[in-house]
Amino acid sequence: MKGPLFYAKILLFGEYGIIKNSKGLAIPYNAAKGALKIDKQPSEKAVESNKKLSQYATYLEQLQEEQSDRFSFDIERLKEDISKGMYFDSSIPQGYGVGSSGALVAAIYNNYATEKITVLENLTREKLLELKQLFGIMESFFHGTSSGLDPLNSYLSLPILIQAENHIASTSIPSQNVDGKGAVFLLDSGTVGETAPMVQIFFEKMKTEGFRSMLMNKFIKHTDACVDDFINGDFKSLFKHLKQLSGVVLKNFKPMIPEQFHDVWKKGIETNDYYLKLCGSGGGGYILGFTQDLEKAKKSLEGHQIEVVYTF
Asked: What domains are there in the chain, each with its CATH number?
């Protein structure tokens, strides 16, 4: 048994901001993916994943009992497959901010939801919102809280534009230019990040008036501008706002940036060789980078592992 593939996602813009109604833009990241699978001779990793799936099935069963009007899964078949050793075979790194649990949730929904909204339907705003809400509840098993955006992106495998909490739509982004000098890339921090503690720090900071004001007047303002510029392919304006956004994050989101990258982050702003921003909740995992000259950025970031995800 091998289910369809579900891809990782990258939230290009909107981390933390979408909690407070900023715009957001998420794109599939096809270099990392996962699928449900059963092996005759499972690896240690597969056995571990199978155990987690067993706990998750119990959670879904409970969810169905409590909210039978919203959730309908073939729990019997799911448990049967888990008893045969089913696991999530994934190349998506966990704790890296690229949606490892989101891909798993999408795969389970696709295979075991009995009244599912399919990708082939006319996906109205209402259907997208309903999917996002269902996925949010399904994914909260892994993080304690979830926007549902990661599984939605993985399930649809389309770029998703968030215009406000209750206004989401699939969108198109400019085609990649394989010969382009500019690029969006992932920088490996070398450490794993955990979502829950980072989100907790954010909500603690939100209790202070200064932080709330910065979020609305600077962070969200530049995030919204970046989303519009990226979708419209206005890269000149995009980099102007990215520089501002990168500076705001360095100043106000320091706990979310691994300490050894504070100077690397600052160097990008000072040299204009690249600009960095959080990828997901931060605290480790990947850091997202943007550059107008990839070769220059590579030289500037020598000794660091980078992966290109989009060129323009």
From this structure: 6-170 (3.30.230), 183-311 (3.30.70.890)
